[in-house]
Amino acid sequence: MMRRIRVLMWKEFLELRQTPELLGLLVIAPVIQLFLLGYAATTDVKDVPIVVVDADRTIRSRQLVERFAGSPHFRIVADEVDVHQVDHQLSSGHAWLALVIPTGLGAAIDRGGAPTRTDVQLLADGSDANSSGIALAYAAGLVREYNTVLLAERGAAAAPINVSLRVWFNPELVSRDFMVPGVLAMLLLVVTANLSSMAIVRERELGTLEQLSVTPLSNWELMIGKLLPYGIIGFLDAIMVVVVAVFWFEVPFEGSVWTLLVAVLPYLMCTLGLGLFVSTISRTQQQAMLTAIFFFLMPMIYLSGFTFPIENMPPLIQKLTYLIPLRYFLVVVRGVFLKGIGLDVLWPQVAALFAWGTAIVTLAVLNSSKRG
Amino acid sequence: MKGVLAVAMKELRQIRRDRRSLLILLLIPLFFLFLFGYALNFDIRHVTLGVQDRDQSADSRALVAAFSRSAYFDQVATIEHERDISDLMNRGSARAILVIPEGYARRIGRHEPVDVQILLNGDNANTATTVLGYVNGVLTEATAGLNVKANASTIGVASRVWYNPELRSALFLVPGLIAYIATISAVVSTSLSIVREKESGTIEQIRMAPISTLAYILGKTLPYLVIAQTSAFLIIFAAMSLFGLPMRGDWFTLFIVVGVFLLGGLGTGLLVSTVAETQQIALQASMLLAFLPVFMLSGFIFPIASMPVVLQYVTTVVPAKYFLIALRGVVLKGVGLSEVIAPLTALAIFATAVVGLSALRLSRR
Asked: Can you give the pLDDT at residue A39?
């Protein structure tokens, strides 16, 4: 039995070698994805373009504007803007935020006597809701800081309740440390499921499946021989991604490599089995690819918590996410990288991956035996 | 012209024979719309909060109440022992933990500053930043509630958000989603359609047929342009009726913008298929050329302004970036044709370039 599987694996590798473009894509694609996700996939808000309308033109208003100019979160693209131009600046997308300082701000602060409150206006372009929300919070924070400075000038204590903040797992709140380990999980899914979804259907389209079915190979041997080569490629991709993540992106790796390895194997079983299952239910390569990508890969990637937090989803959908193997593997990868936790905490995830993998491979084998 | 029609009819017949692929191209966009409209968002509510109240006084309980009263936090655990903290954090059952120190009430009574501790799970930096904003908001309110007399004038903030006053992320994601789906279905459909002829050997017969390369390319493209345009507008209509996506601009501008963008996507697919020899390679290449840039470099989810400068330059050749500017402009801001001329020109240049290049490549062989 081992010999027959080895021969089939050899045939698969030979076929891969005959399409060097594909082999190239299998190496290049992960690298490009990793670098794009490592550098571009940041939801950190930096350099938000802002315009300033300073109707006050006093020392106080300039002090406030300087706080914005000095902040890494904002980039002043134009100051001394006329108030009527704000509309155009926001609708054309030149600026996302406009700070409008009314006349009388400086006078109100330095007048003395009864305390007053003067509002500055912040106008935000909400069409990028996520970034605008964060930018508004930063802007409000800058104004609050300036208030504290004003209070201190009067000799008053700053706000009586202070926050002493401690951030766990990612103290500097770098989104890259969150995204890059996730790439490992996504890449493995995309590469291995894509490849294996072609496995059977290509033979069927080329008519060589008939020849395979008259060989003494059993269904199980056929499936295993088809899957293992892709599994090995996926495994090499995984090692490459971990090395780049740790040594290039300097993502902290707090946990143990062994925990990761123990989880990668059942996860590969899931992704390969999934591709194979798609292959058994498709007639043409095009169908297989479209089915794999649109029915399985993309919904899984989006609902797994890779970019969109699961806790923000409606309760019903949250329950659905338990059906997605990527979800469990993401918890493992991020746990191992950022939290340094081991199997004592992560065993339920690994068990879920094993169950899922066994189920999908069995389903694929059963399905292919019915092909008659 | 007759040649174009003939190729288009042949292509349509082939599309009709593969029902599942057609259904996928038409219906999957709707499925994604539901996904993005209902399931996926960055609107963070119900942050899980653990509380360790070491003071156990009326004041400390008031502060805890201020947190659980706010719409943003759900108190999920009361912590007795120090070790429970790391357990809650490791398992991810609490995203934030509030620790109120002993002597909290005493210091408040004496008007002395007091530190409360906030522990945040920072694994998702984006969520953590937002949660920190909520924490600051609750504490600012609580401070004001303590009736502290400030003897200086203060500056308040009145913020107003345009185009999307409630900052609903659906309104910002849906236009991006349209770009995303349109690109993928456009690129994938054409990239596979020519490679399929190569793989099955029928491309030779077409080469012998008395039609020009341009007619062949147009005939291949038109049916998919109609399908993709239909599915793009299906998404837009559904988004309007289901998620209250406003349509503030005019339909004609929208039609033009979508059409030119789709032409670019179809052209990219054609270009891929002139290079690739098998469907597998065509698909992998078009995913790499279409899927990734639209997802990562268009401003769909990740703001371009925050990227490293080199990548910001790279985004200038990503057509989806211009499409998003134009689409968000027309749909959310109500700008007219004259104001989207710049992004529209960029899209038209891109479409002409890819269609022209693929015609050149096809005719040379």
From this structure: 80
Q: Which of B125, B159, B281 sits opposite A170 (nearest CB)?
A: B125
Cβ–Cβ < 8 Å for A80, A100? no
Residues of chain A with Cβ-Cβ distance to B128 below 8 Å are: 167, 170, 173
Residue ranges of the domains in chain A?
2-41+174-369, 48-153
Chain A, residues 235-274, CB within 8 A of chain B, namely none
CATH topology of domain B47-145: abc type-2 transporter like fold (3.40.1710)
For residue A230, what are its two tokens? 């892709």
Which residues from A are below 8 Å from B110, CB to CB? none
Structure tokens belonging to residue B249:
């601009």
pLDDT tens-digit map of A85-106:
888 887 777 888 889 888 888 8
Report whether A313 contacts A144 (CB < 8 A): no
As a residue count, chain B comes to 365
**Quick check: A267 pLDDT over 90?**
yes
Indicate the pairing of strand A117-125 with strand A74-78.
unpaired
Q: Is the pLDDT of residue B345 over 90?
A: yes
Residues of A in contact with B90 (CB under 8 A): 335, 339, 341, 345
**Which of B45, B47, B302, B331 to mutate to probe the A interface, most A CBs <10 Å?**
B302
- SS in 3 state form for A102-171? CCCHHHHHHCCCCCCEEEEEEEEECCCHHHHHHHHHHHHHHHHHHHHHHHHHCCCCCCCEEEEEEEECCC
Amino acid letter, A186: M
Instruction: Give the span between the Cα atoms of B75 and B58, in whole angstroms.
Output: 18
Positive or negative, the Cα torsion across A306, A310, A313, A317?
Answer: positive
Domain ranges of chain B: 15-40+168-364, 47-145
Its ipTM equals 0.70
Please tell me what DSSP assigns to residue A79: S
Q: Which of A37, A43, A45, A278 to substitute to test the interface with B, most B CBs within 10 Å?
A: A43
Using CA atoms, how far apart are residues A302 and A306, in angstroms rounded to an integer?
7
Phi, psi of A78 (to 5 degrees): -160, 130
Residues from chain B contacting residue A111 (CB–CB below 8 Å): 153
> Whose structure tokens read 């892709």?
A230
**Residue the block writes with tokens 């979160």:** A73
Look at domain A48-153 and name its CATH class.
Answer: alpha beta
Tokens of B300: 């769909």
- Pick the range with the lowest mean pLDDT from A193-207, A249-263, B226-240: A193-207
Q: Is the pLDDT of residue A308 over 90?
A: no
* H helix intervals, A215-314: 219-243, 257-280, 285-290, 298-303
Q: Structure pTM?
A: 0.76
Between A345 and B43, where is the model more confident?
Answer: A345
